[in-house]
């Protein structure tokens, strides 16, 4: 497991070694932003005047990976607890013909490298040797004002990489910042162009946005900027109804650590049926496992609201399913009534395993022994016996056999 102190120590070592070799080198981007905000960086990037070949020569080919060399990026491998540090040569980008990636890059200066980045708070450098911030783009002022602002012309930055629109919403959400007016206007104007981005990349941004505790504000910002109409049109058709209010209320009440499948299900339940939820998952090319969980949650989102009055045979399959914990969280976030129902269900789940989920009294072999031929009827019979068992109407195999004989 990565250790923050080891990551930081190794990232500082990378800068120090580059500097000792005669190159300019700074920490760059998100790690600088997070450090200045008092947050622990998840990883560290280094920007340097050293070329990819020079970085590999300095650190050795066995300790470097050249996966991003075409864009001037070399991964420097550190100790296990430190992970890797990406060392990127200061660069200037050519045109972005596909609206996502530069056609080519030219190695340049720190000023030009900062100017090609997306937002001012991501365009800061930090010198861990001299312990100072290098700011060519006004990022420190925007951090102080808790404002997300594009570097230079917002329309130019978005035209280069259309994904930056979703990144703007995500950063504003995660950091708790406001979108600077001109940056916001550019997102609103250019929202229909988000389709230049692959479904997988859209899903990746939505995953990170919905996994954040501030997810409700993030979804509201998607709606306000028009991005929701492009990436998740299912939730915009009912904007004039109470659906949006219900959705944001549920998102606000979800546990802060709610994971993506639960959060997406919470977004979708006021607007779509299970088939509609599956369509969203397939459009974003989510895994089969996540798709099944999200669709199941949408299908059963209201199934537990009357739990205290439900028979155990009806509650049992829901509370013993793989997604039961998420279903309980969704239920308790939906309403005060749902919170009470979820509390009731959690009390039931504290029962001993043999009472909560006892082994079935009959199996297919028992039916065959009674001369009942195998076929679709098997499941009907076994389900009926299982229901009676769970509801306490029969307690032993003998009871089950007797009931079966009487029924036939």
Concise account of the structure shown:
This protein is α+β, with helices and mostly antiparallel strands and 408 residues long. Helix content is 52%, strand content 10%. The protein has helices at residues 4-20, 30-36, 52-59, 110-115, 139-144, 154-160, 164-175, 181-190, 199-210, 215-225, 227-231, 243-253, 260-268, 274-283, 288-300, 312-319, 324-334, 336-348, 353-356, 364-369, 376-390, 397-407; strands at residues 25-28, 45-48, 64-68, 73-77, 84-89, 91-93, 105-107, 125-127, 132-134, 147-148, 178-179.
Using the alpha-carbon principal axes, give the shape.
elongated
Distance between the termini: 61 Å
Strand order of the largest sheet: 3-4-5-2-1-8-9
Can you give the helix content as a percent range? 40-55%
Number of helices: 22
**Count of beta strands:** 11
CATH architectural type of the domain at 1-141: 2-Layer Sandwich
Multimeric status of the protein: single chain
- Rg of Cα set: 28 Å
CATH class of the domain at 1-141: Alpha Beta
Structural class: alpha+beta
Please indicate the percent range of residues in DSSP E strands (runs of 2 or more): 5-15%
Mean pLDDT: 92
